[in-house]
Amino acid sequence: MAYKSPGKGYADVASHFRARIKSGELAPGDTLPSVAEIRDQFDVATKTVSRALGVLKSEGLVTSRGSLGTVVAQSPLVITGSDRLNRMAQNGLQYAPGETSTGHRVMRRSVHDPQVCKALDLEPGSEVVIRIRVFQQDGRPTSVGVSVYPPHTVAKVPELENDVRMIRQFDELYTEATGREVVKGQRTAYARQASRDELNSLEIDAPSHSAVAVLVTEITFHDDERPLGYWEDVYAPGSRVPISD
């Protein structure tokens, strides 16, 4: 059934299509409904639809293609790992159309990074499981995802140690095993210099003496007793990353 609610404004119309692009329901190259169809769907004026599409164009999410109408741009939003969980819960899509992941690695390591130790309430040198993957859109690397899990989480979700791509997310598996709800903490973002491994994963050709700035988002997951996991996403320069309100 078409979504239709009297009294909607241009911001509501833009938000509807922005969410569909973010969720992966609309992929790069997909055509949006015509102005007349959107007007009827939302019971709004043609001017309202035009203004909503203008907002989406200004955000780089859609573009005009003449007789083809308005299509989703080839540089879509690059979502965070946390948003990926939301997308799977919403529509079951692990990947958006044209999106995939490569370079999956799973390793046991002693963690000494102060930021990770603080997030997971671990002593430096504690052993953790680290999972790394590179996300791509239409064959182009967009982000590197790193997730770190302490021993008590791995004990409940042993699949985290398997050196294969996980089909189900750890929070769902943890809740099944323990009956405890997994809660996401505050997601934060900051910029820093990319490591050489990150530059290689993102296929960025830069001289060894040069500094390349990347955007990083991080989030920690908890149950009602302690931290369960730390996720970090590193985005290729130029990526458009949605930030929560």
Instruction: Give the end-to-end Cα distance, rounded to a whole number of Å.
Output: 28 Å
| CATH hierarchy class name of the largest domain | Alpha Beta
Quick one: biggest sheet? 7 strands, antiparallel
Mean pLDDT: 89
Number of strands: 9
How would you spell out the order of helices and strands? HHHEEHEHEEHHEEHEE
Radius of gyration, rounded? 20 Å
Q: Helix coverage percent of residues?
A: 25-40%
User: Could you say what the CATH architecture of the largest domain is?
Assistant: 3-Layer(aba) Sandwich
Total helices: the number is: 8
Can you tell me the CATH topology of the largest domain? Chorismate lyase
Q: Structural class of the secondary structure composition?
A: alpha+beta
Fourth CATH level, the homologous superfamily of the largest domain: Chorismate lyase-like
Beta-strand share of residues: 25-35%
Overall spatial form: globular
Number of domains: 2
Give the uncertain stretches in residue-range form. 1-5
Search tags:
Arc Repressor Mutant, subunit A; two-stranded antiparallel ribbon; disordered N terminus; 8 helices; Chorismate lyase; alpha+beta; 2 domains
Can you walk me through this structure?
The chain has 245 residues and is α+β, with helices and mostly antiparallel strands. α1 (10-23) packs across α3 and α2 (35-42) crosses α3. It is built from eight helices and nine strands. The radius of gyration is 20 Å and the shape is globular. The longest helix is centred in the N-terminal third of the chain and has 14 residues, at 10-23. Helices cover 30% and strands 28% of the residues.
